[in-house]
Design brief:
By secondary structure, this protein is an alpha/beta fold. It has 14 helices and 16 strands. 42% of the residues lie in helices and 19% in strands.
Length: 423
């Protein structure tokens, strides 16, 4: 059987499962989620054993320690993953929500209601916890899911999905509601991206290269997520103490995530007061500053910035820095280099805040708070599938409602166009 046939069969099975999920009640779905969580904890030793093979292979390949840590599962981590599934049961079910409704002049009752996408493909990198998170969120929103994790986590993902499928079947749900995309080669990704008509949407979660590949090669609709070249702009009217606190949190609270700050722009009028303190504070946290000539004048420890430094999503203890002459220049810089994820202004000026939020184009524009708040949980949405940086369908943290589409339900009592002389 060819890879095309194999992936097509999996997608066709997911399509059948999606028809079943679409009409399931919240109570049924929550019951299945709890069963999945219980099964993960029950089978934790076997999952850890499977994961050990992935970890061993990664270590032997010289994989970065941070990636190995994200790949690693322990019984304690599995318990936290299971608890995250249970937390999804507390979230409102978006399916069936009436987005808007009205009665037309001719008596037709019109309702726009949320419905599942149907079949969602998710392509992601090393973290096996994404396997469970994605499965749970898709189930709650009434979608079947095709999961294509990285080969580095293939044993872990196979074990996790095996447990989830068994729990689904035991709960009276179709096991094919959760599937791993068959195959370990790039061909399986290509076939998933070409399964138009069977797969309704693909969501990539990972680095810039993965997202670029999906966007450029998919004929299935794509919701683009993730890459975050996030900026902190310290305005002339900023409170220096607050600016340092927010900069440090945005950069160092967790530097390997997409909502961590990667560039700081400082207005020239506050630079003499702010820069020496900021450079010391960043150095104390182990951050390497890649600065332009004006920033480098404040410290010999600043690494001279190249053009690529302002383009980078470092995901590390590195930050680009520049001193600019005006808010106009800050906005222009952000427009040039931003990935439209999260942009922050620190200022005491309402006029500056209004100008920045109106002119900067991003999924989240923040005034006087850390960039690290661009997160579904922090926004109060609960769990998220990712952070969309595009403009169509969803933008920003993607919770359960963003995993649905809508349809119109029209109820009449015999109305026809012929009876409406203006139609």
């Amino acid at each position: 059987m060819t890879m095309t046939q194999t992936v097509t069969e999996a997608a066709a099975a997911a399509r059948i499962a999606a028809e079943d999920l679409a009409v399931r009640t919240r109570a049924d779905k929550d019951r299945a989620l709890r069963a999945m969580a219980d099964a993960l904890e029950k089978h934790a030793p076997g999952i850890v054993e499977a994961n050990a093979a992935d970890v061993r292979r990664a270590v032997e390949a010289g994989t970065d320690e941070g990636i190995v840590d994200r790949l690693t599962l322990t019984e304690e981590r599995i318990a936290k993953i299971a608890e995250a599934l249970r937390a999804i049961t507390a979230l409102a079910d978006p399916v069936g929500e009436v987005v808007r409704g009205s009665t037309l002049a001719n008596g037709l009752e019109l309702r726009q209601v949320r419905v599942p996408f149907g079949v969602v493909g998710i392509i992601y990198e090393a973290r096996p916890n994404v396997t469970v998170d994605a499965a749970g969120l898709c189930l709650k929103s009434g979608n079947a899911v095709l999961l294509r994790g990285s080969t580095s986590a293939r044993e872990s993902n196979a074990a996790l999905v095996g447990v989830l499928r068994e729990a689904l079947a035991d709960s009276g749900f179709p096991a094919d509601a959760v599937q791993l995309v068959p195959g370990d080669t790039h061909d399986s990704v290509t076939e998933l991206l070409r399964a138009r008509g069977l797969v309704d949407v693909v969501i990539p979660r990972g680095g810039a290269a993965l997202i670029k590949n999906v966007v450029e090669n998919a004929i299935v609709p794509v919701i683009e997520t993730g890459v975050g070249n996030c900026h902190v702009y310290v305005d002339a009217d900023a409170d220096p103490d607050l600016a340092i606190e927010l900069l440090i949190d945005s950069k160092t609270q967790r530097p390997s995530v997409c909502n961590a700050a990667e560039t700081v722009l400082v207005h020239k009028d506050i630079a003499d007061e702010f820069m020496p303190r900021a450079l010391r504070a960043l150095a104390d946290k182990g951050v390497t500053v890649h600065g332009d000539a004006r920033v480098a004048a404040y410290s010999a420890d600043v690494v001279p910035a190249q053009e690529t430094d302002f383009e980078n999503e470092y995901l590390s203890l590195d930050i680009a820095a520049a001193i600019i002459d005006s808010i106009d220049e800050a906005v222009a810089h952000i427009r040039r280099y931003s990935t439209s994820h999260t942009e922050l202004i620190i200022t005491r000026s309402q006029a500056a805040a209004r100008a920045f939020t109106a002119r900067v184009d991003a999924a989240a524009v923040i005034v006087n708070a850390s960039t690290r708040f661009t997160d579904g949980g922090e926004f109060g949405f609960g769990a998220e599938i990712g952070i969309s940086t595009q403009k169509l369908h969803a933008r920003g943290p993607m919770g359960l409602p963003e995993l649905t589409s809508t349809k119109y339900v029209v109820i009449g009592d015999g109305q026809t166009r012929a009876k409406n002389a203006n139609s």
